Design the sequence.
């Protein structure tokens, strides 16, 4: 493996890791929203989870954050594939 390839691979993995870490809030919001939607007494964890409208907002915001993160990761993976094909 060439030295430049190792550097780009390291950069790619660092960018993927940063994107995954930045996606954690979306995952947490979706998890809390699902807990609030399916649990019998979600208000015991937090009073906002007892409100069905707030649970819907939490799910929508978390889902949107996850979709944005998915788009960014997908774009990065496609870019890496193009670079590998161009270099090969």
Sequence:
């Amino acid at each position: 493996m060439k030295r430049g390839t190792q550097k780009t691979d390291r950069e790619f993995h660092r960018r993927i890791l940063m994107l995954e870490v930045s996606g954690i809030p979306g995952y947490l919001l979706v998890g809390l929203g699902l807990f609030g939607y399916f649990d019998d007494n979600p208000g015991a964890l937090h009073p906002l989870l007892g409100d069905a409208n707030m649970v819907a907002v939490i799910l929508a915001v978390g889902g949107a954050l996850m979709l944005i993160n998915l788009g960014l990761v997908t774009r990065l993976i496609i870019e890496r594939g193009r670079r590998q094909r161009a270099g090969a």
